[in-house]
Specification:
With 134 residues, this protein is mainly alpha-helical. It has a three-stranded antiparallel β-sheet with strand order 1-3-2.
């Protein structure tokens, strides 16, 4: 598999020309994948239900992250003209196609979480974790 990772010069706007950097800048933050996974698992959600499902995200950060996901086409927002307005979020086809590619990573994280935590403990204790390959 050939990756389209382009080197860029510091201080320039060339990162937008690199598909890897351009896409991962949005979905590689702390909250975006959690929001996408939550919408995939629970379907259409209102803002407050989404916040409740994630738990430790602030209202401001949720709103900011949702705007970015909507801007990039992963999420769509529907506003109902009520008082106060009700807003629902759902994945788009693009968001669903992204998650189809992310699911193996999520499965890998689930399967290897204990090993990663153990490696962190060993690193923090100053020892080098040796592991058999295979």
């Amino acid at each position: 598999m050939k990756l389209h990772f382009l080197p860029v010069q510091r201080g320039t706007d060339h990162a937008k020309l690199c598909p890897v950097r351009d896409v991962l800048d949005c979905i590689g933050d702390r909250w975006s994948l959690l929001i996408l996974l939550t919408l995939a698992q629970q379907g259409v959600l209102r803002f407050t239900a989404l916040k409740r499902a994630i738990g430790d995200i602030s209202q401001r950060m949720l709103a900011q992250t949702l705007r970015g996901l909507e801007r990039d086409g992963y999420v769509t927002r529907k506003i109902y003209p009520t008082v106060p307005p009700q807003v629902e979020y759902r994945l788009t086809n693009l968001g669903e196609s992204l998650l189809a590619k992310i699911e193996p990573l999520v499965a890998w994280a689930d399967q290897n979480h204990d090993r990663v935590r153990k490696a962190r403990e060993c690193y923090g204790a100053g020892s080098v974790a040796s592991e058999e390959k295979g």
